[in-house]
Amino acid sequence: MPKYYEDKEEDSHPCAGSKEDLKSCLLESACVLQEGKTPKQCLKEGHCKSLQVSFFECKRSVVSPFICVNTAVVLGQP
């Protein structure tokens, strides 16, 4: 479930909430805080996996309609 922040500027990008939640999860994880690894390293190790999948699904849902429309035009389909 996305977190909502009162004192932050509103980001109008489609997946901003998912991205913010993933970022917060990684920055607050023991991997980063206790082990001193970078968020990128922790992500590769599988930390915050459910939020990573949610963010990926969100990004894919934004891109998919565009790809479908362009593919149909290229293939000559209505």
TrEMBL record:
Pfam families documented for this protein: Pet191_N
What InterPro entries does the database record attribute to this sequence? Cyt_c_oxidase_assmbl_Pet191 (IPR018793)
UniProt keyword annotations, A-Z: Disulfide bond
Q: Organism's domain of life?
A: Eukaryota
Entry similarity comment: Belongs to the PET191 family.
What does this chain do? Involved in an early step of the mitochondrial complex IV assembly process.
PANTHER family to which the protein is assigned, alphabetical = CYTOCHROME C OXIDASE ASSEMBLY FACTOR 5
| Name of the featured protein | Cytochrome c oxidase assembly factor 5
